[in-house]
From TrEMBL:
Region (Disordered): 396-419
Boundaries of every Macro domain copy: 426-601
SMART domains: A1pp, VWA
Protein name from the UniProt record: Appr-1-p processing enzyme family protein
Gene3D superfamilies assigned: Leucine Aminopeptidase, subunit E, domain 1, von Willebrand factor, type A domain
Ranges of residues in domain VWFA: 44-216
């Protein structure tokens, strides 16, 4: 079966003959799975890359890498153009067949950052390049990447969105990618929504190649564009709410993302069903799905009637509540809370914004438990911490992005974005109840952790010369080095604290771990002291969240399994006696450390 299917998952499997029923329903749009030898439509891509001055360093390097990756994935029958912009727009590669990939990638590798950000003009030129070779039977898309504000040429978001919508009506969609914390998330989100494309928030430039990979794979598996869902309530049934907050077409149909093979989309609907006449079943709503399909001249359509048995009130009360429906309603409500919290922050009402997040978190915790709900609760905590620390840019972008992806159905996303990264975390299921949720183990980069303090595994001279010590100094900037010079060294097992400077963390706690000498020179006692002194110092500075690296397991040679047991034992003991510290995160860079810490927690 090549057509998508419409499936229904109701909160209860019946409606009442005697009372008004409020019924939440998951409407699942399920495209077919991709074939083993997927015949994909031809692609006509316009890559539009910001090369303004703020893209200097890692951003432009990863942007070049991502664009080169995209080119290498194309077939010789696909088309590609490359437009670059600062305050001047330049067509680096006019639209061409992707036959000379090496030449195209060499041109991309020449891109270097320069001046201001003519975002709209850059997008317009990219759209022109795609439009010149519009392929009605293929997929035509502009992919816009930016890390800054539109501050040259047209800067009005409504005017830009109108232009994007107009181009989409001609058959050219737009995907937007925002890098870092300085771009306009409202503009990029509305451009993607208006342009029938996707919007991505890229926290660090290292994610760029993976995001491009996801976008291209989604394009290659796209089977339907201009997707619309109509809802026709029957009898006196009333559609109270569509929790996704989808845009509505002039015909009153809900606009859905593209149909991508293998990626279902979930619409969460709330109905009010009046008492129904006794019958085997009742027609409640008719759902009609329509879309444009490559290589099909006529618009495709399917209809599906939603029916449920009609039972007495006593029998309805015996019907169990579906936990999946409960969870999805709570997740969509949390998405709304995040969006409203952003509005409150824009008004300067931080207290109300924080309360909205806390209320949403309590609702998530009260819903049927699952890893997804746990991830959402963590995400809400982290957002509130950003808010409390007045990291407003990070808070605003992450809140907007999480809300956007939830409303467009999280199952639509397949790459390791924020939520998937969260799902890789170990939350200490085997810990006592009083510690569960207070200890995490993750594999990643400690310099990227949004906690109150990170721990630096340094040497006795606080030199910043190797391993995690050097990485933290690079990320923090020269101010950290200058402050460390005032501390007059650090004895093995001791802990000293400095500010975090350019790091997301406010504080850095420095500790000098012991070198491994066979295990007979008191190394275990000294390593335990490192953790004890770091945690004590954190408590003195009212630090609520702290991240540790795998101290001494690198070039100091401490065996990972032994070091992890010491670390976890010390942290558990401290947390059981002290409630001030809310969360400890072990951030492991090496796989072997990650595995050992997982086993030790």
């Amino acid at each position: 079966m090549n057509a998508p299917q419409i499936e229904f998952v109701p909160l209860r499997d019946a409606v009442s003959t005697e009372a008004l029923t409020t019924l939440d329903v998951l409407v699942k749009i399920v495209p077919p799975q991709p074939e083993a030898n997927l015949k994909r439509p031809e692609l006509n891509l316009g890559l539009v890359i910001d090369r303004s001055g703020s893209m200097a360093g890692k951003k432009i390097a990863y942007a070049r890498q991502a664009a080169c990756y995209a080119v290498q994935q194309l077939l010789g029958s696909d088309r590609v153009s490359v437009t670059i912009y600062d305050d001047i727009v330049e067509t680096l590669i006019p639209s061409t067949l992707a036959t000379e990939k090496n030449y195209i990638t060499r041109q991309i590798e020449r891109i270097h950052p320069r001046n201001m950000t003519a975002l709209h003009d850059g997008w317009v030129e990219g759209g022109k390049q795609v439009s010149q070779y519009l392929n009605p039977e293929g997929l035509n898309r502009v992919i816009l990447l930016s890390d800054g504000l539109a501050n040259k040429g047209q800067t009005n978001a409504d005017a830009i969105a109108s232009d994007v919508y107009g181009l989409a009506q001609q058959g050219v969609s737009t995907t937007t990618m925002g890098v870092g914390d300085d771009y306009n998330e409202d503009l990029l989100e509305v451009m993607a929504n208006s342009g029938d494309g996707n919007y991505y928030y890229i926290d660090t430039p290292e994610q760029l190649p993976e995001i491009f990979q996801t976008e291209l794979h989604g394009l290659m598996a796209t089977m339907g564009r201009e997707v619309r869902l109509g809802i026709e309530p029957q009898a006196d049934v009333d559609v109270v709410d569509v929790f996704n907050d989808l845009d509505v077409s002039p015909q009153g149909e809900f606009k859905l993302p593209n149909l991508v093979k293998g990626n279902p989309f979930v619409v969460v609907v709330r109905l009010k069903v009046p008492p129904m006449r006794a019958a085997d079943s009742a027609n409640l709503c008719n759902f009609r799905l329509s879309w444009d399909e490559p290589e099909q001249k006529e618009r495709q359509r399917i209809r599906q009637m939603f029916q449920l048995p009609v039972v007495a009130a006593a029998a309805l009360a015996e019907c169990p509540l579906n936990p999946e429906v409960q969870q999805q309603v709570v997740l969509m409500s949390a998405a709304r809370a995040k969006k409203e919290a952003v509005q409150k922050v824009d008004e300067g009402d931080y207290a109300t914004a924080s309360q909205l997040l806390e209320t949403a978190r309590k609702q998530v915790l009260a819903a049927p438990a699952s890893p997804l709900m746990e991830q959402e609760a963590i995400a809400l905590i982290d957002l509130d911490r950003d808010l409390q620390s007045r990291r407003v840019q990070q808070f605003r972008k992450m809140s907007t992005y999480q809300s956007h992806r939830s409303r467009r159905s999280m199952s639509q996303s397949t790459y390791h974005d924020y939520q998937v990264q969260r799902s890789q975390r170990y939350r200490g299921q085997n810990l006592p109840d009083d510690l569960r949720g207070r200890i995490e183990v993750i594999q990643g980069d400690i310099t990227k952790q949004r906690v109150d303090a990170i721990v630096n595994a340094t040497d006795n001279y606080l030199s910043g010369s190797g391993g995690v010590d050097a990485a933290i100094h690079r990320a923090a900037g020269s101010g950290l080095k200058k402050e460390c010079e005032q501390l007059h060294g650090c004895k093995t097992g001791e802990a000293k604290i400095t500010r975090g400077y350019n790091l997301p963390a406010r504080w850095v706690i420095h500790t000098a771990g012991p070198a491994w000498q066979g295990g007979h020179q008191g190394e275990d006692r000294m390593l335990a002291l490192c953790y004890q002194n770091c945690l004590t110092l954190a408590e003195q500075y009212s630090i609520k969240t702290i991240a540790f690296p795998a101290i001494s397991t690198g070039f100091l040679g401490f065996p990972s399994d032994w070091a992890s047991r010491i670390a976890c034992s010390q942290v558990r003991t401290f947390l059981q006696r002290n409630s001030a510290i809310e969360k400890v995160v072990f951030v492991c860079f090496q796989q072997r450390d990650f595995d050992c810490y997982l086993n030790s927690v």
